[in-house]
Write a structure and sequence with these properties.
The chain is an alpha+beta fold and about 300 residues long. The chain contains seven helices and 16 strands. α1 packs across α3.
């Protein structure tokens, strides 16, 4: 097939209108294009859809989006839920986290990459005195992902630890870890303290830092607090503080452990609701947006 040539202006002025030449890929069978795109990423697929009508149609194929789904997706999604396409299923897993492991973990996909994200429920953590109703109370609130979450009433020894197999996460991926919470009444005895946290794979050196549960910095100790990570508000109305990062090389029998501990202050601590510990892929410098309406 001939390539389209430039069409010159009839004004005789030597100008012309360039008509884009067809892409060689336009002559490939659509299923072949779909197969090629399936080896990229969800973000790349959405970009490819803007190349031509042929690409736009190819990107809609289940061949593409099934490759972006986790291999075990059929065992994660309830059979009662029906989707028109694998693309609809993919975006549902991005926007509507699923409860797995008897409601003790929340699972979803990072939209631009398809990487796995997990939130560990407090039922899967080790929290000192959490079974004692005079110190902690299990409550049910509509905005929480889990059936019950613990509310801190009054403790002197604050200790929260979590541990999870890396098989729940995507291999070859840098992960950031967050504690997701709601402070009540500025968390008396706790909110204004730097809290020591650790994150890392079992058997390896752990990442260490300090965080705060309440954002505003105490100006009297500004220099001391300069390296303390402060919380940020999330789109879902909860707060989160980044605990650290680690690299999940392969998904096997390794475990990642997390600790959030404050036992030095003699003051009693209260006013904290913990939703969970969240593991999600570390943000890259280029943060592309991909909406549900994208191809």
């Amino acid at each position: 097939m001939e390539n389209t040539h430039d069409i010159k202006s009839s004004s005789g002025c030597g100008g012309g209108i360039d008509v884009p030449r067809p892409s060689p890929f336009d002559y490939l069978p659509e299923d072949c294009i779909s197969n090629i795109i399936s080896f990229t990423t969800p973000r790349d697929a959405c970009v490819a859809a803007s190349v031509s009508k042929t690409f736009e149609s190819a990107v809609q194929s289940d061949t593409v989006w099934e490759k972006f789904l986790p291999p075990d997706y059929s065992s994660l999604v309830p059979q009662s839920r029906v989707f028109l396409s694998k693309k609809d299923l993919y975006f549902s897993l991005c926007h509507e986290p699923l409860l797995i492991e008897d409601g003790k973990k929340s699972f979803w996909l990072e939209k631009t990459s398809g990487k796995r994200c997990i939130m560990l429920s407090p039922k899967e953590m080790w929290i000192t005195w959490v079974s004692s109703p005079q110190y902690w109370r299990w409550i049910s609130i509509s905005e929480a992902r889990f059936e019950e979450v613990p509310k801190l009433l009054n403790v002197c020894w604050f200790e929260v630890r979590g541990r999870m197999s890396t098989r729940y996460l995507s291999p070859g991926t840098h992960y950031s870890v967050y504690i997701v919470f709601k402070p009540k009444d500025q968390c008396p005895g706790l909110g204004d303290l730097p809290i020591k946290v650790k994150v890392g794979l079992v058997g390896q050196e752990l990442f260490q830092r300090f965080i705060r549960f309440v954002g505003p910095m105490d100006q009297r100790c500004g220099r001391e607090m300069s390296d303390v990570t402060r919380p940020e508000e999330r789109e879902d109305g909860w707060m989160e503080a980044e605990l650290g990062e680690f690299f999940n090389e392969i998904s096997c029998d390794d475990h990642v452990e997390v600790s959030v501990v404050e036992i030095k202050s003699p003051y009693w601590k209260s006013g904290l609701i913990i939703q969970g510990i969240e593991f999600r892929p570390t943000k890259t410098p280029v943060n592309e947006k991909m909406s549900h309406n994208s191809p």
